Amino acid sequence: MAVLSELVTNAVVHAQTPAGREEIETSFCRGAGGVRIAVDDADETPPTMRAHDDAGGRGLTLVKAYSARWGVRTRRGIGKSVWAIVTAPGERWL
User: Fold this and answer.
1) Which CATH number, 3.40.50.970, 3.30.565.10, 3.90.226.10, 3.40.960.10, labels domain 2-87?
2) Each residue's pLDDT tens digit in the chain (94 positions)?
3) Residues in a beta bridge with 87
């Protein structure tokens, strides 16, 4: 849940979306040994890891720590999809 929460929070807090394009979409894909979580928004700017402080900055660091892999891809049309693969203990995504 931490990974999903961080990805959605990043989209809500940091996505600079054009008026009328404020929607955020989540998707999940179960695979061998884990789940691929994706959060899409209408901002084309990729997220960046930043130094954390008392006010924040831990989001992508947590995503990286709790995920087997994570990344960003552009969407057809407008925006981006930030995804992470979360595996079961002792498993890996195939």
Assistant:
1) 3.30.565.10
2) 689 999 999 998 888 876 776 789 999 999 877 899 999 998 988 888 877 766 667 889 999 999 999 999 998 888 999 999 999 776 665 5
3) 34
C-alpha to C-alpha distance for 58 and 36, rounded to whole angstroms: 21
CA dist 61 to 57, 58, 78, Å?
8, 5, 26
Sign of the Cα torsion 94, 25, 77, 64 reads negative
Dihedral sign for Cα 65, 10, 72, 25, please.
positive
